[in-house]
Amino acid sequence: MSDRNFLVRLVSSIWHGVDGVRKILHLLLLVVVFLMFFAALSDAPSVMPNRAALFIQPAGPLVEQLDGDPYDRALAELLGDAPPQTLVQDIVDALASAKDDDRILTVHLELSAVSSAGLSKLRRIGAAIEDFKTSGKPVIASADYYSQAGYHLAAHADEVYMHPEGLVFIEGYGAFRSYYKEAIDTLRLDWNVFRVGTHKSFVEPYTRTDMSPEDRASLTNLIDQFWLMYREDVESARGLESGALDDFVQNLVDHATAAGGDIAIASRNAGLVDDLLGRVELRDLLIGYAGEDESDSSAYSAVRIQDYLGQIRPLGGGDVRDENVAIIIAAGTILGGSQPAGTIGGDSTAALLRQALSDDSVKAVVLRVDSPGGSVFASEVIANEVQALQAAGKPVVASMSSVAASGGYWISVVADRVIASPATVTGSIGVFGMFPTYQRTLQAVGVSTDGIGTTPWSGQLRPDREMSQPMKQLFQLMINDTYDDFISGVAELRALDKQVVDGVAQGQVWTGQDALKHGLIDELGTYEDSIRIAAELAGMQEDGYGSKLLETALSPTEQMLLDFLSFSKGAGIDIGKLVSKPGALELFANKLEELLAGAAQFNDPKGLYTHCFCEFD
Questions:
Q1: I need a labelling partner for 453 at 20 to 30 A (CA). Which of 120, 277, 317, 441 fits?
Q2: Domain boundaries, the chain
Q3: Of the listed 406, 412, 421, 428, which one is catalytic?
Q4: Predicted confidence band of residue 594 (pLDDT cuts 50, 70, 90)
C-alpha cells in the first residue's frame, strides 16, 4: 500500500513538474512575442547618410490611391506579392522635403519600371521636379527602357541616361476597344441597352462592331490635345526644337535606320537622352555626385524614397493643426456599398465625408476625384454627403485628377468650387443601363422558360426570359429621367441654361481646358491650389491651417499583426514561406476572375450607370 502511495506521489510530482515547466515555457513564449512586438513598435529607423542621393524608383502605374484593402495590401507587400503601384503624393512630398535638406545632394530617378500614368499626374510630378531643381541640386534620370510615362518624367531631369541596349518608346495617345456585337449575335444573346447621350459610348461594344462617328470625333479631339500637351511638355523640358519629338516618333523607322538599326543611338542622336551608359558607368557617375556608400565602395551613397519618407514624415509630425482642410481621395469606379481603396464605394466614401463633418478640426474639405464614374445611386449618395458638409458651413472643393467624368463629374459638380488640370478628362454627362438576356441561347439547346405571375412585371428581370416591350419602355423612362436630373442639376449648380448644358452633355468628353470654356468647371489649377482655395473659402488664415488625409485605417489588431510580421521579416525570417505560391491553374483562375470582375462588379440597385470609357495613359 505504501509502495502504491509512493508511486502515486512520484507520478503526481512528475506531472506537476512537467505542468510547471509547460507554464514557464508558455510564459517565456508570451514574453518573447511581446518583446518582439514592442521592439517592432520602437524599432529605430535606418540611419540616414549625411550626404546621399535621393533614389526614386517608381514602379507600375502612378496613382492617387493604392488599390485594395489596406491590410491585405500591406500583407501582400510583406509577402512580396503586391502588384506594383506608386503614389504620386509620395514622390511630390519627397522632392519637396529634399529640396531644402542639406543631406540630399542629388536626386536619382530610375524610371525603367514606370508603366503608365495620366498626363495630369505626370505634369504634377514634373512640376515638383522643376521646383526641386531651383535648389541648384542636379536631377539624374536613368532607365533601361523608357515608357511614354517614364520619359515624360525623365525629360525634366538635368541629365538623362539610358542603357546602350535600351529603348525610348513613345506611342502617343490612342483609344482602342474590343467590340462584341457579332459574338453576341452568334451566341443568340439579347443585350438590351438603354442610354441617353449621342456620344455615350460605354455601351457601344455591345451594340456595334466598330467605333461610332460621334465617339470617334469626341475622342479624336481629346487625344489630339493630350498629344500636343505631351509634346510641348517634353520639348520644353528638354530644350528641343518645336516638332522635334513628333518627328522622332512619326519617323522612328527612318531615325533607327540612320543609326544602323540601333534605336538607343537614334534616341541619343535626336537629343532625347544625353548619353548611353551601362550600369557600371552610371554608378561611377552617381558616385561623383553623391559620394561612395559607406559600406560598399562600388555603390553610390543613396537613400530610397520610402526610407526617406519614413524619416521626414514622423519628424514633421504631419501637417495636422487645430484647423485643417480634410483630403478625401475618390479614385476608381463608383460602386454601391463599402469598397476597398482604389474603388469608390457609395457607403465607404460617404462615411469618410461624415467623418469630416463630425471632426471639429476640419473646416473645409478637398474631394480629390480620379474616376470615370459608375453607379448613379452611389454617386448620389456621395453627392448628398457633400451637400451635408456645405449645409454645416464646411466648404467642399472638388479637385479633379486625370479623370473626373460621368459619375466622377456627378460627385464633383456639387462642390463649392470645381478645379481641374488642363489634362483632366471630364464631362461625359450621360446615362446608360444594360440588361442582357439569354433565352434564345437556351432555346438553341432545348431549354425553355415558362410560368405565371400576378402583374406584367413578374419575372421580367430574369435573364432567361425575353424583356417585354413595357419593361423596355420603363427602363428607358428611368434613363431619360436620370439624364434630365443630371443636366438639370448641372445647369442649376453651374448657373447655366439647361439647353446649353445639354449641348455639351450627350456623353461628350472634354479636357479640363475645354471644360473651362464650356463652364463645366470653375478654374484650372493644381492639387495644391485646391487646398489653398478650400482654406480661403473657410476663412482660414494663410499658413494658419493644416491638412488631414482621411482614409480607412487599420484596426489595432491588424496593425499589431503587421508590425509583428514586419519585425519578423527584419529579423531574417522568410515569412513568404508561410504562404504557398499559387500554381499555374490557380493563376489562370485568378486572372479569369479578374477579367470577369470588370463586368460583374456593377451593382446599382436600378441598373443605371453614368460611366465613360475615357482613361488614357
A1: 441
A2: 52-173+227-313, 319-446+460-556+603-611
A3: 406
A4: low
Give the per-residue SS3 of 343-388: CEEHHHHHHHHHHHHHCCCEEEEEEEEEECEEEHHHHHHHHHHHHH
Q: What CATH number belongs to 319-446+460-556+603-611?
A: 3.90.226.10
Is 399 annotated in the active site? no
Q: Which contiguous run of DSSP H or E holds residue 585?
A: helix 584-600
| CB count in 10 Å sphere of residue 46 | 12
Residues in the chain: 617
Give 532-556 pLDDT, tens digit per residue: 999 999 999 988 999 999 987 655 5
- 178 noted as active-site residue: no
- Residues 6 or more apart whose CB falls under 8 angstroms from that of 404 comprise 369, 370, 371, 398, 412, 420, 424, 425, 426
Which three three-digit cell numbers place residue 79? 509577402
Superfamily of domain 52-173+227-313: 2-enoyl-CoA Hydratase; Chain A, domain 1 (3.90.226.10)
Start-to-end CA distance of the chain, whole Å, equals 90
Are 52-173+227-313 and 319-446+460-556+603-611 in the same CATH fold?
yes
Band of residue 11 on the pLDDT scale cut at 50, 70, 90: low
- Catalytic member of 137, 200, 363, 548: 200
Provide the grid cell at 27: 510564459
Residue 42's pLDDT is 45
